């Protein structure tokens, strides 16, 4: 199979779909890899590094899309990239379609086979192994950026996240105890904040309670508790995920007026629409905005702030699945592997993932074309 990897074009996105070590694996399996020139330069991988790994270099993204049987990316395709996709071509990347109706329309019109990293499951049908490494990174980063924005000159409350003798630490509320929420809690606890985690899954509640053993409060998530707690919280981290679906707005706009001036909210879930009704996607170059004296940090590609670490982690997670698609072809790979089958979001102009179809109010096709 001919594998193509274009350079990412989303703002401040320096990750790359294939690092040289991944290229070597595809080549070793008998596949041909073409890279857009300078695709990896943002994380210090040169065209020479890719040539040494066995790839060929193309000058433009159009050449990549025109030639490749499978496109491997990091971020969801932008409108200009959707327009270059063709019928039957495999697209393997993050999609987050529930919050992106225009992208969904572009993918449907292209006739491509779109497989989303974020809905590929583990072997038992549970877990999201291609989303997990980015969720881990985003969760850990959320506390770093939250602590920074709590500084007074950034608009925050002016409270340091950790305690000093005689002074209370910042209160941190984490909405969701999944992978990103768990990792956020680990860092916040390590920084000596007063941490509360909200979760609804009872098995997860027990796991979190056992793990943190009193170092963080683990509470069943109820609207009334959220409304009361946010009034005295310095940093709120939105970390809720429903695979393929829009994130529910756990904090409505009218609640902001009850919060302390300078409260910081970090919305990890912004790719799926966000946990806060007032969330709107931002970029690393302009990451925050203020509504009702509450600082909002809603960067849609948080792991892009540490692109070397995140690109390597993502490549390691994606590689076995990408090789299966290349070695067997998408139909056979999906028929043999339920985890990959769960990643199929768009096929021949139809939405094949139920939560996505529901979020976009589009017809759902239960993969009958496979």
Could you walk me through the main structural features you see in this protein, from its secondary elements to its overall organization?
There is one protein chain. The protein has helices spanning 20-28, 47-53, 61-67, 79-82, 101-110, 132-149, 179-190, 202-212, 223-229, 253-256, 307-328, 330-336, 338-341, 354-360, and strands spanning 2-5, 32-36, 56-58, 70-72, 90-93, 113-116, 171-175, 194-199, 217-220, 235-238, 264-267, 288-291, 294-297, 344-347, 350-351. By secondary structure, it is α/β, with parallel strands linked by helices. The chain folds into two domains: 2-120 and 307-360, NAD(P)-binding Rossmann-like Domain (Rossmann fold, 3-Layer(aba) Sandwich), CATH 3.40.50; 132-305, Rossmann fold. Strands 3-2-1-4-5-6-14-15 form an eight-stranded mixed β-sheet, with helices on both faces. It has a seven-stranded mixed β-sheet with strand order 9-8-7-10-11-13-12, with helices on one face. The longest helix is centred in the C-terminal third of the chain and has 22 residues, at 307-328. It is globular and about 65 Å long.
Instruction: Name the helix and strand elements from N-terminus to C-terminus, one letter apiece.
Output: EHEHEHEHEHEHEHEHEHEHEEEHHHEEH
Helix content: 25-40%
Strand content: 15-25%
Contiguous helical run count: 14
For the terminal residues, how far apart are their CA atoms? Answer: 19 Å
Spatial strand arrangement across the major sheet: 3-2-1-4-5-6-14-15
- Cα-based radius of gyration, to the nearest Å: 21 Å
Category by helix and strand content: alpha/beta
| CATH A-level architecture of the largest domain | 3-Layer(aba) Sandwich
> CATH first level of the largest domain: which class?
Alpha Beta
Let me know the average pLDDT.
Answer: 95
CATH homologous superfamily caption of the largest domain: NAD(P)-binding Rossmann-like Domain
Q: Oligomeric state of the chains?
A: single chain
Largest sheet at a glance? 8 strands, mixed
Number of domains: 2
- CATH topology group of the largest domain: Rossmann fold
**Total beta strands:** 15
- What overall form do the CA principal axes indicate? globular
Q: Which spans of ≥5 residues are poorly predicted at pLDDT below 50?
A: none
